[in-house]
Design goal:
This protein has 134 residues and is mainly alpha-helical. It folds into two domains: 38 residues; 93 residues, Orthogonal Bundle (Helix Hairpins). The chain is 79% helix and 0% strand. The chain contains four helices and no strands. The chain is globular, with a radius of gyration of 19 Å.
């Protein structure tokens, strides 16, 4: 398989090993901080995680169910970050209305909505038996 450029030709791909891991960690942290500062949807979904994760850990359910509940909330954040990255890339290209730009942003928004639906369904499936036995 041939690539259009050699790894050494891309100045952003020169780091290897622990240096690469360190830079990746710093970049990831910067992304999380930026998302928290600039994206209200990310803050709202992070608030859900902060409130509901301890609840999931305190529920009398199996460890697997706890992991599923918390993971469903983390998944929402992951997809929100991907959605925000698509929106940023589209806005970088142009603020002008274009049907393909709208479609890309709508796809990202739909992905977040589906992640939220999955989280709600998981929480309902795990918590419903607890509520019904009260």
């Amino acid at each position: 398989m041939s690539f259009p450029y050699h790894v050494d030709q891309n100045p952003h791909k020169g780091n290897r090993g622990l240096t690469r891991a360190w830079h990746a960690t710093k970049n990831s942290w910067c992304g999380l901080v930026y998302a928290f500062r600039e994206e209200s949807a990310f803050r709202q979904e992070l608030t859900l995680l902060v409130l509901l994760a301890p609840t999931a850990l305190a529920l009398p359910i199996t460890p697997l169910e706890k992991v599923l509940l918390v993971s469903s909330l983390v998944m929402v954040l992951v997809i929100e970050l991907l959605n925000s990255s698509v929106e940023a890339a589209i806005d970088r290209i142009s603020f002008e209305h274009h049907d393909l730009s709208k479609r890309a942003k709508d796809f990202g928004s739909a992905a977040v909505m589906l992640a939220l639906v999955i989280a709600v369904l998981l929480w309902a499936a795990v918590c419903a038996p607890l509520i019904l036995t009260l």
